[in-house]
Amino acid sequence: MGGFYDEIIADGVYKYYINGEWKSLSGKTQKINNPSTNETAFTVTACRKEDVDAAFEAAKKAHKSWAKTPLWKRAELLHKVDAIMKENAQPMADVMVKEIAKPAKDALTEVVRSGDLIGYTAEQGVRSLGEGKLLVSDSFPGQDRSKLCFVSKLSHGPCLLSKIAPALMAGNTVVVKPPTQGAVAGCHMMQCFHKAGFPPGVINFVTGKGSEIGDYLTLHPLCKAISFTGGDTGLAICAKAGMIPIQMELGGKDACIVCEDANIELAAKNIIKGGYSYSGQRCTAVKVVLVHESVADALVEKVKKGVDALTVGRPEDDCAITPVISESSANFIEGLVKDAEQQGATLLQKYKREKNLIWPLLIDNVTAKMRIAWEEPFGPVVPVIRVKTIEEAIDHCNTNNLALQGCVFTENVNRAIQISDAMETGTVQINGAPARGPDHFPFQGMRDSGIGSQGIINSLEMMTKTKTTVLNLDKPSYTMG
């Protein structure tokens, strides 16, 4: 694995990180399977409730001094993380290939992009968090100029989250609990923060079983804010978290609306890119195509041709379609496909599956009575619903409880804006596939797709609370004549 990462593993088990130290537990472990083989690829520590307590206690103890650390110093440390991640990117990318079946080239790109995001957060944080506000009382009717209000931004305290860089830049301390499939890549990332020289307790990292420590983490009395990326688990967290700031990026059933005047070649290209990259396992993947019946045949033909050309196989070989994250995910996807087929949908490729590897599938003639019209497959399967009017497509989009992103293809810019205004979803891409980023753009979902707006600028804002100080002055002795 290489010397840089040697201290994060002992006897084949990845450690956890609390108060500036990598730690081990005897006999408490959790297996992580390689999605390509369904065999154990890694073993991580299964932290206990007392380890969660230790992580939050360390974060609480470190918070006061970290919150007083100058912005430039916080930014300097984050820039070090950016550089260290890029210098040690390949081992982290190799782990992602085995842990989440990310194609090798995409995995390396994602590590580099993560470093870029951390560096940009540092720069933006210095600018936005360094700004205060001064209000004067006589701007409100009936008031004289006898009060000055100073508005500043303070950190929350220990936070449980996945948006690490904005929280740290805002002066918060952090407890990180990664998903099971992703825990080892998380260990590698934590080592980059460790080597950058963050003070003990500022950032802490626990691994383990969500069934054992998940609720304990989210309900912990020392937790002052939560930022989470996921699906149904996020909804459960929202129901339990109580009176603390919450930022959620949850599931999506991202609708692609194709109008009768669309550039069909462009639409097809983006449906293939948006629906099948990383085997459709992205919250912003195209998950249902709503196409006007007058151009449906032409669109389906072009998309089918592109899907048939996708390479299928191992992530190590940089194939376009690789195994989905787990056997349970593959079973869920298969259930959606079988339901659609039994109810009369047209499978434009033969359904094929080997363990967790599902061949890409385009499903035509899907109707609203089929599960796949509404549920998120999170796999390389894209349903096509033919509509008589674009209003029908908009109504389908707005009826779903998932509303993260969507897209619309039309050559008429006025119509594009009108359709976007009518779509009740967090982000609408015009003549482009749904996508996350650039990361300084606002990013949010509606209904069950999330709470709060993300993007670097908005995440920095969420990671702070507003403090006002009012200076009461002597009443003015002059009068206006």
From TrEMBL:
| Residues in Aldehyde dehydrogenase domain copies | 26-468
Catalysed reaction(s) here are:
D-glyceraldehyde 3-phosphate + NADP(+) + H2O = (2R)-3-phosphoglycerate + NADPH + 2 H(+)
Which molecular-function annotations from GO does this UniProt entry contain? glyceraldehyde-3-phosphate dehydrogenase (NADP+) (non-phosphorylating) activity; lactaldehyde dehydrogenase (NAD+) activity
Q: What is its EC number?
A: 1.2.1.9
Could you list the residue ranges forming a coiled coil in this record? Answer: none
- Keywords, sorted A to Z: Oxidoreductase
Q: Which InterPro entries match?
A: Ald_DH/histidinol_DH, Ald_DH_C, Ald_DH_CS_CYS, Ald_DH_CS_GLU, Ald_DH_N, Aldehyde_DH_dom, ALDH-related_metabolic_enz
Under which main EC class is this enzyme filed? oxidoreductase
Active site: residue positions:
249
Family statement drawn from the similarity comment of this UniProt entry: Belongs to the aldehyde dehydrogenase family.
Query: What's the protein called, per UniProt?
Result: NADP-dependent glyceraldehyde-3-phosphate dehydrogenase
Organism, per UniProt? Symbiochloris irregularis
